[in-house]
């Protein structure tokens, strides 16, 4: 190395500030996503409840498929929406093993007090034998005796608070049924909230899924090692359940961990990949711009005897000097971002609170490595021109920019354009959650095309947009701006690309969300035709509530709605969807829920347990029609193949799969209805009916049909928030990149501004010219960005909602105003700085 | 001042090859029907130790001539010989190395790297060549151009004339066979221009350098031994031992003639 690079960086750090900022931000985003990804991969929860049970048997928390991929057998998994359980019969088989001292079945289900016992909070119902898990060695409660049938042991603190003592009676409702119980004893507090214990047989029935338990905790006999114990247990379960040891027991305790990990891996991996690509894209653009601005310097070096290789090496060395420092600094804001993001995910319940952010060296190394590679690539790309040119061309080209981009560039640009179009078509066939990530891929393709075809597009845009400026409305400043932008298409393209990026990313992500939200709200509004909606302030309404509601005078029909999820396979992808378990007479369903049946009939639903009705677009993506059997994984991972009896229009936001409640109730963690939809008999007094419905349970709430929408889909809420954050992160990054680029291009025009002032242009006129240019840049960027966002959105919106994208005017205006303000500020401030120097200095300054 | 060679004796080294020789050099920009001929058959030989000015109206091909002669650009046809060696066929890398060691350059502006000190700028060609950097010689050259005290300054701290003098010192560091100067006084005031021209003259007389200078200034041209006039890409005359007035007259005539063909000459 000849040290030119070092001299350059040390002497004029200012000219590297732009590249430095781009590298720093890129590293920050990569670090943040990397930390989330790593957390997703390594996330674990320390076992608390099972701390004294070295081996725990549970169900597999994932739905899995394997298929022949390009690299042999590949597999995919998807977290199940409900807890996957084990057969209780396994308990005896495990207990029979010689190394096993005890095999303790563990059950938990929500229990609510009814009527007179209303002072009790929502309790966790458990089987009494599981009390031994947290109080080792004691098989009796602290006070009183173990519960028999018709008896419960209550947690001490909860009992005191409700003024209850052993011998008192309580009325309790569980998913599997309600009843009156005598308190037989009191027990010490549990770590995870107030509990109530039932006799084992009773608990299994009350849990709503008899024959299965959440897990089986296994304790060894003295002298048996964990691995030996695990081996014996594995033989006993014979592949019918998962055997967990160590921290894997924590995952059994906290089934939300599987879904949390999926969320983290999705964010860190899929979104992180896009974000990293964006970062690399921005870094390359910025560095290329910075190098282009030094064309004269390289031309001179070429003339006095620097070989093309020496120019390339100098530029590469500059990158290598710059990138590690910038990236290392970027790690800090990246970690801050990861911390905030992770905190929000925990607060929103997407990730269990016991998981902590895993800040490893790997994401940081990845960030630094990617930055260095991006900088090197950028240097290589940008150095090709100055290095390859003959010095005479270089000297000439430094002053006048080349007329048009090369053929290769145009071909590559068109290829990227075609790729984006093809991918957009593909995205149309995906469902909501996958669509967002694919959409980002589409946007990336189009952005690449814009970057490659930038000078041509910029010239086109400004020729059209510049017409009114030339037409004199804007005076001398306006016409100057129009001429400048037209002549300097390449410079303009560098400024427009980041604005396009902001618009395209934010537009796509935000408006996918608004489209889904709007379509969902619209569906809910049209579909919910019930006269009364019975909801609950607690975990849900027991199955009996719907039956009791149906018997209320003035009620024509009452339909219980149990909300759960299912997993389906579409191609080689696993996706999850919402399922409504419907109780009552399905023929009366249209009286409370008008789903817009397209084919078949909902009244056939429930003719047998083995039936299902599907949202039409879901049926299409699954490739099934009425009469076909559709393979599904129920919430707990049970595979079923029900017959499709109907397809309906309004699934999005309401529920995409409809099944008889009886078919799903045993496959959910807590078989409680989210709502009971009630239609009133003609002539019934709504107020009287509502009053009587409210009296059904102390936790019941009664609203009109609008109340149906209030219980919004948690998944949708979460993905809406996730999209907003993604838009903010990508949009914010692109916005800073845009500002950065604009400042760089303005500061590069010191000479030009100096000459303008020497030839009699006033401050006002210079500022005016720059303002018009900024507006041209913003308008062109918005135009191209909106075109990209629209092209991306249309097929996706069509696939999801069957309609055009829904774009709220207010949000769109805010976005546009933001882009314009950004362009104005990023141009105006450096222009002021330029105008502060004396024109003669600026005019003769060396660039 | 050191001794002065006889100005007339430009063919003095008749035995050796000329410092620079052009044989039927043409250069066209663009291709096909739209091609514009910047040089249309230039034959020329310049002796070692000569100082030649090249003049012509705008668009006469002066810059193209200089760039072809200096190996900055490749002729469309014809040959360029440097010290008897043909350079037209050399690869870009060989050509670069040749420029580095055997040719010196002084441009109108932007001659110096702003990030290097004056001394480092003078040593730049040796640095690029990976050779031992001869600081003593660089210091001597800086003293010759009257900037002995400014070696550790940055170009930004010097006046335009001083920067051009640094550029001359840099052009001479490798003891090149030919120094090409493209409007070296174009951006300077009269006094600084005079100093720069004096230095070029001295490089020829005292150090035996060969200088080829493109200029549009008759006064600058009068420092040369010979002025070559270009019009529409061809040599149309020369003037030995020029004085500013006769150069100016010839230029007037050429410009008037060129005006008659306005629109044809590119």
From TrEMBL, chain B:
Keyword Metal-binding, does the record have it? no
Q: Which spans are transmembrane here?
A: none
Q: Which InterPro entries match?
A: AAA+_ATPase (IPR003593), ABC_transporter-like_ATP-bd (IPR003439), ABC_transporter-like_CS (IPR017871), ABC_transpr_LolD-like (IPR015854), MacB-like_ATP-bd (IPR017911), P-loop_NTPase (IPR027417)
Its keywords, alphabetically, are: ATP-binding, Nucleotide-binding, Transport
Q: Which residues form the ABC transporter domain?
A: 20-257
- Please tell me whether the keyword Transport is annotated for this protein: yes
Q: Which PROSITE patterns match?
A: ABC_TRANSPORTER_1, ABC_TRANSPORTER_2
Give the GO cellular component terms, alphabetically: membrane protein complex; plasma membrane
A GO molecular function term, named singly, is:
ATP binding
Full protein name? ABC transporter ATP-binding protein
Q: Which organism is it from?
A: Streptomyces inhibens
């Amino acid at each position: 190395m000849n040290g030119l690079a070092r001299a350059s960086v040390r002497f004029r750090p200012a000219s590297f500030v732009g590249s430095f900022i781009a590298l720093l931000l890129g590293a920050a985003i990569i670090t943040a996503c990397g930390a989330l990804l790593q957390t997703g991969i390594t996330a674990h929860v320390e076992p608390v409840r099972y701390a004294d049970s070295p081996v725990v048997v549970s169900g597999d928390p994932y739905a899995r498929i394997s298929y022949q991929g390009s690299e042999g057998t590949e597999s995919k998994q998807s977290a199940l929406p409900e807890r996957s359980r084990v057969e209780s019969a396994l308990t005896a088989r495990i207990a029979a093993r010689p190394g096993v001292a005890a095999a303790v079945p563990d059950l938990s289900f929500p229990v609510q007090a009814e009527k007179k016992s209303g002072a009790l909070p929502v309790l966790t119902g458990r089987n009494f034998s599981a009390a031994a898990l947290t109080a080792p060695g004691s098989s009796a409660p602290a006070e009183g005796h173990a519960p028999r049938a018709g008896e419960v042991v209550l947690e001490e603190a909860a009992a005191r608070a409700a003024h209850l003592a052993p011998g008192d009676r309580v009325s309790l409702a569980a998913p599997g049924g309600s009843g009156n119980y005598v308190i037989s004893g009191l027990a010490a507090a549990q770590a995870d909230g107030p509990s109530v214990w039932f006799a084992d047989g009773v608990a299994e029935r009350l849990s709503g899924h008899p024959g299965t338990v959440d897990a089986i905790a296994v304790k060894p006999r003295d002298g048996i090692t964990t691995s030996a114990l695990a081996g014996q247990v594995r033989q006993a379960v014979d592949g019918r359940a998962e055997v967990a040891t160590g921290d894997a027991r924590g995952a059994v305790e906290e089934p939300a961990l599987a879904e949390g990990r999926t969320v983290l891996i999705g964010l860190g991996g899929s979104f992180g990949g896009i974000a990293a690509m964006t970062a690399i894209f921005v870094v390359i653009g910025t560095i290329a711009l910075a190098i282009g601005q030094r064309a004269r310097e390289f031309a001179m070096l070429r003339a006095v005897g620097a070989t093309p290789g020496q120019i390339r090496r100098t530029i590469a060395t500059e990158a290598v000097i710059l990138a590690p420092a910038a990236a290392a600094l970027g790690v800090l804001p990246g970690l801050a971002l990861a911390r905030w993001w992770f905190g929000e995910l925990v607060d929103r319940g997407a990730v269990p609170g016991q998981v902590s952010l895993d800040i490893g060296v790997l994401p940081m190394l990845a960030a630094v490595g990617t930055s260095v590679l991006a900088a090197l690539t950028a240097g290589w790309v940008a150095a090709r021109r100055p290095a390859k040119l003959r010095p005479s061309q270089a000297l000439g080209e430094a002053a006048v920019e080349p007329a048009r981009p090369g053929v290769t560039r145009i071909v590559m640009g068109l290829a990227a354009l075609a790729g984006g179009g093809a991918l957009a078509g593909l995205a149309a066939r995906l469902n909501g959650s996958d669509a967002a990530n694919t959409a980002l891929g589409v946007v990336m393709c189009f952005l690449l095309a814009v970057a490659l075809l930038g000078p041509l597009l910029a010239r086109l845009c400004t020729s059209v947009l510049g017409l009114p400026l030339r037409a004199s409305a804007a005076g001398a400043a306006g016409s100057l701006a129009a001429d400048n932008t037209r002549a300097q298409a390449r410079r303009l393209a560098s400024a427009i690309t980041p604005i396009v990026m902001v618009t395209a990313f934010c537009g796509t992500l935000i408006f996918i969300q608004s489209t889904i939200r709007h379509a969902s709200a619209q569906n809910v509004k049209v579909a919910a035709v019930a006269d009364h909606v019975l909801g609950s302030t607690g975990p849900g309404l027991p199955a009996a509530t719907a039956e009791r509601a149906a018997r209320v005078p003035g009620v024509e029909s009452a339909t219980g709605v149990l909300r759960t999820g299912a997993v389906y396979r579409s191609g080689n992808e696993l996706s999850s969807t919402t399922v409504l378990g419907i109780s009552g007479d399905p023929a009366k369903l249209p009286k409370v829920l008008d789903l817009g049946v397209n084919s078949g009939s909902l009244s056939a639903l429930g003719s047998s347990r083995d039936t299902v009705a599907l949202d039409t677009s879901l049926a299409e993506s699954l490739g099934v029609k009425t009469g076909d059997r559709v393979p599904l994984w129920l919430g707990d991972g049970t595979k079923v193949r029900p017959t499709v009896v109907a397809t309906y229009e309004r699934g999005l936001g309401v529920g995409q799969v409809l099944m008889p409640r009886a078919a799903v109730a045993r496959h959910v963690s807590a078989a409680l209805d989210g709502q009971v939809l009630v239609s009133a008999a003609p002539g019934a007094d709504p107020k009287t009916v509502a009053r009587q419905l409210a009296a059904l349970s102390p936790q019941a709430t009664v609203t009109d049909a609008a109340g149906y929408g209030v219980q919004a889909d948690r998944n949708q809420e979460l993905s809406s928030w996730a999209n907003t954050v993604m838009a903010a992160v990508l949009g914010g990054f692109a916005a800073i990149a845009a500002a950065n680029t604009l400042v760089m291009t303005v500061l590069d025009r010191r000479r030009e501004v100096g000459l303008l002032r020497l030839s009699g242009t006033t401050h006002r006129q210079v500022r005016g010219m720059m303002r018009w240019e900024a507006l041209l840049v913003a308008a062109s960027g918005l135009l191209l960005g909106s075109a990209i966002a629209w092209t991306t959105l249309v097929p996706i919106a069509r696939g999801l909602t069957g309609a055009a994208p829904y774009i709220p005017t207010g949000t769109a205006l805010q976005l546009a105003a933001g882009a314009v303000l950004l362009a104005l500020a990023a141009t105006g401030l450096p222009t002021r700085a330029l105008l502060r120097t004396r024109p003669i200095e600026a005019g003769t300054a060396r660039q | 001042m050191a001794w002065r060679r006889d100005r007339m004796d430009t063919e003095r080294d008749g035995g050796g090859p000329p410092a620079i020789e052009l044989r039927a050099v043409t250069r066209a920009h663009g291709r096909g029907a739209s091609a514009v001929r910047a040089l249309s058959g230039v034959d020329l030989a310049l002796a070692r130790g000569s100082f030649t000015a090249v003049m012509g109206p705008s668009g006469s091909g002066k810059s193209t001539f200089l760039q072809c002669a200096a190996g900055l650009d490749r002729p469309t046809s014809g040959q360029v010989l440097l010290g008897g060696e043909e350079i037209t066929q050399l690869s870009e890398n060989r050509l670069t190395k040749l420029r580095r060691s055997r040719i010196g350059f002084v441009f109108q502006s932007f001659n110096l790297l702003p990030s290097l000190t004056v001394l480092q700028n003078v040593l730049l060609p040796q640095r690029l060549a990976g050779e031992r950097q001869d600081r003593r010689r660089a210091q001597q050259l800086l003293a010759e151009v009257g900037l002995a005290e400014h070696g550790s300054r940055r170009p930004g701290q010097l006046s335009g004339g001083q920067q051009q003098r640094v550029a001359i010192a840099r052009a001479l560091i490798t003891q090149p066979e030919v120094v090409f100067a493209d409007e070296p006084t174009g951006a300077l005031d009269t006094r600084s221009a005079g100093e720069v021209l004096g230095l070029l003259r001295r490089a020829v007389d005292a150090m035996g350098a060969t200088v080829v200078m493109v200029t549009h200034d008759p006064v600058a041209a009068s420092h040369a031994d010979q002025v070559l006039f270009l019009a529409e890409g061809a040599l149309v005359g020369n003037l030995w031992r020029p004085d500013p007035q006769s150069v100016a007259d010839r230029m007037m005539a050429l410009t008037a003639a060129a005006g008659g063909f306005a629109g044809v000459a590119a």
